[in-house]
Amino acid sequence: MDTFTWGIIGPGNIATEFAEDLHLIKSAQHRVGAVLSHNLEKAAAFAEKEDAPQHFDDLNSFVENARVDAVYIATPHPLHHEETLRCLQHKIPVLCEKPLAMNSREVQEMVDASVEHNTFLMEGMWIRFLPSIGKVLSLVEGNAIGKIISIKADMSYKAPNDPEGRYFNPELGGGSLLDLGIYPVFLTHLLLGKPAIIKATARLSEKYIDEACAALFNYGNNSYAFVESSLVTETALRAAIYGETGSIHIGNPWNEKPPEIIVRPYDGADQRHPCAWEGRGLQYEAEEVARCVRQGKLYSDQLCHQFSLDLMATLDAIRQQTNIRYPADGQALAVSG
Ligand SMILES: NC(=O)c1ccc[n+]([C@@H]2O[C@H](COP(=O)([O-])OP(=O)(O)OC[C@H]3O[C@@H](n4cnc5c(N)ncnc54)[C@H](OP(=O)(O)O)[C@@H]3O)[C@@H](O)[C@H]2O)c1
């Protein structure tokens, strides 16, 4: 059986779940071969748990010596840009956690590096590959609800009130939009594309990151969407898509493993589609990366470079309107105030 070897950068919460889900893949043997942490002992412990032969505490040494087929970058968002560039420069294919970077300038540089070094790059927007999102896409494409009129989706997590932690600290990319709001924005991009008009509002912290955020999108063709994210309140964690002949409802938690998807025709009975799969579901994006890398592709057709550029352009526009600021922006995002 083919073996696909992963490097892990940032062995934290999501990297732990990613490594666990790799064991669920049956199409090939996926394993962790190298781990990079700031702390050598932590890297060694993660490597030992995953039976990985290499561990590092230095990015230079990792990119020069890691024997891997691809790397999974799971550090706080402000580190994604630099770590991705370094890997691509060494021709290591990259799956980088969402958000791909802090702003459009950084995403463009990462995409350019992927092209220049002829090396695969994909944003870890893992829900694109979940069976639940695949089902929604096939229902919409199969005309189950007619033309889409509106989408309503939210994401929240009432985060621990730690100003230094990654949820509220601008230096670590804190804020609800980039961490959580990116999911509903992703769903709207998947189903309706780039919005023509964006109207956004936010509750900002003293450090200019959004504790909560909401936006209305208009598509210039009688379709619109409402998205919301929050680190300080608990919202419904649901997504609904309303069409001309019916609606689709993804249950709570819509961006994880919802119990079911309901299709509700306006003139008929509900159709229920239960959702079930092993693990969290990160194995599906890992399989897609392996397929693409084995085929020598630069990007996945299901989550391509342009999609990540468009997604970040929308996030940038929301940030400009609401004055959400990060050190990484420099002059790139012309915020006022
Ligand atoms: N796909 C998903 O469902 C999902 C879920 C949660 C998060 N994420 C994304 O994954 C990324 C990491 O999130 P997480 O929840 O896994 O975070 P986490 O538990 O804090 O892990 C991040 C890791 O990055 C490393 N790191 C490097 N520099 C750091 C710094 N200055 N401060 C803190 N950690 C630093 C740390 O490992 P070392 O100290 O060992 O280097 C840490 O273990 C974020 O971009 C987030 O948006 C995705």
Order of helical and strand elements: EHEHEHEHEHEHEHEEEEEEEHH
Tally of structural domains? 2
CATH architecture heading of the largest domain: 2-Layer Sandwich
> What small ligands are held by the chains?
NADP nicotinamide-adenine-dinucleotide phosphate
N- and C-termini, Cα separation: 58 Å
Top CATH class of the largest domain: Alpha Beta
Low-confidence stretches: none
**Mean of the pLDDT scores?**
96
Share of helix, binned: 25-40%
| Form type | globular
Characterise this structure.
- With 337 residues, this protein is an alpha/beta fold.
- The protein has two domains: 3-127, NAD(P)-binding Rossmann-like Domain (Rossmann fold, 3-Layer(aba) Sandwich); 131-276, Dihydrodipicolinate Reductase, domain 2.
- The chain has helices spanning 13-22, 40-49, 59-65, 80-89, 104-116, 131-141, 176-192, 282-294, 305-322; strands spanning 3-9, 29-36, 54-56, 70-73, 94-97, 121-124, 148-156, 197-204, 210-218, 224-230, 239-243, 246-250, 260-265, 271-274.
- Strands 8-9-10-7-11-12-13-14 form an eight-stranded mixed sheet, covered by helices on one side. A six-stranded parallel sheet has the order 3-2-1-4-5-6, with helices on both faces.
- Strand 11 (239-243) and strand 12 (246-250) form a beta hairpin.
- Helix 4 runs parallel beside helix 5, helix 5 (104-116) packs antiparallel against helix 9 and helix 7 crosses helix 9 (305-322).
- The longest helix has 18 residues, at 305-322.
- The model has no long low-confidence stretch (mean pLDDT 96).
- Bound molecules: NADP nicotinamide-adenine-dinucleotide phosphate (NAP).
- NADP nicotinamide-adenine-dinucleotide phosphate binds at residues 10-14, 37-39, 42, 74-77, 79, 97-98, 124, 126, 166, 172, 179.
